[in-house]
Design a protein that fits this description.
This protein is an all-alpha fold. 66% of the residues lie in helices and 0% in strands. The protein has three helices and no strands. The chain has helices at 3-17, 23-36, 41-51. The chain is globular and about 35 Å long.
Length: 61
């Protein structure tokens, strides 16, 4: 596993498990997915979903 793939794995696990659902994590996931899977239609759809993500914790302020 290269460094970017390892980072994606770690961030994705933390995001899905609810350990880090920050907007910064979502933005980083967008970037990593786009870089690691260029041209992949299914991944691009998920990147689009992440682009619309808002951090639920931030909405409580």
């Amino acid at each position: 596993m290269n460094e970017a793939t390892l980072e994606l794995d770690t961030l994705l696990r933390r995001f899905v498990d609810g350990d880090d659902t920050s907007l910064a994590a979502a933005n980083r996931l967008e970037l990593l997915l786009s870089d690691l899977f260029p041209g992949d239609e299914m991944v691009n759809d998920r990147v689009g979903d992440l682009a619309q993500y808002t951090d639920p914790a931030a909405a409580n302020f």
